[in-house]
Write a structure and sequence with these properties.
The chain is 12% helix and 35% strand. The protein is mainly beta.
């Protein structure tokens, strides 16, 4: 009984500590891109604002998308990394979600699977090009890209108790746009 109570207390403490931090590592430099593109983001998007939905039909998954990767946004759905471009723009749109809630099915995603993101600016379809597991502090997850890309990130291993040491990352290239 004492062992179960101890494990539960440690897990609760880890969740409380993790919820106080941003989900993605901060970059040392400001986000910038060499490519010229029309920015769809309004001048100021307030953290926690509803942006749209992410749908991965092969996983029977539909998730609400909010601005920001802090605990408050991630408690409602997936969070858009505020320093990355909006979905549909040329560059890397980075989205995070919790492994035990909205992004729990991600471990079963297949190369080529479509990811549909719908915002007020349009519907954008991406195709999964790869998955990888990286260290929790790996900043390659949030770097700019040359083409319209979406990067989904969640803690890994999926069934880890406490603060997970790694991230499961899904990369996908945009293939279709609907306005």
């Amino acid at each position: 009984g004492i062992a179960i109570i101890s494990i539960s207390a440690l897990q609760y403490r880890s969740i409380v500590i993790e919820s106080g931090h941003s989900y993605l590592p901060e970059m040392q430099k400001e986000w910038s891109t060499e490519t010229e593109t029309v920015q769809m983001r309004p001048a100021a998007v307030i953290k926690g604002t509803f942006l749209g939905t992410i749908q991965i039909s092969s996983l029977k998954m539909k998730v609400n998308l909010f601005e920001g990767t802090e605990a408050k946004a991630l408690s409602k759905g997936a969070g858009h990394y505020i320093k990355s471009v909006m979905p549909g723009e040329s560059d890397n749109s980075v989205i995070a979600g919790h492994r035990d809630t909205v992004f729990a099915p991600l471990g079963k995603i297949k190369i080529g699977a479509p990811i549909k993101i719908t915002t007020k600016y349009g519907t954008f379809v991406y195709r999964v090009t790869g998955t990888r597991i990286v260290d929790r502090d790996d900043r390659t997850v949030i770097v700019p890209t040359e083409s319209a890309t979406v990067t989904l990130s969640t803690c890994y291993p999926f069934r880890f108790i406490g603060n997970a040491p790694q991230r499961f990352v899904v990369s996908a290239l945009m293939v279709t746009t609907f306005s």
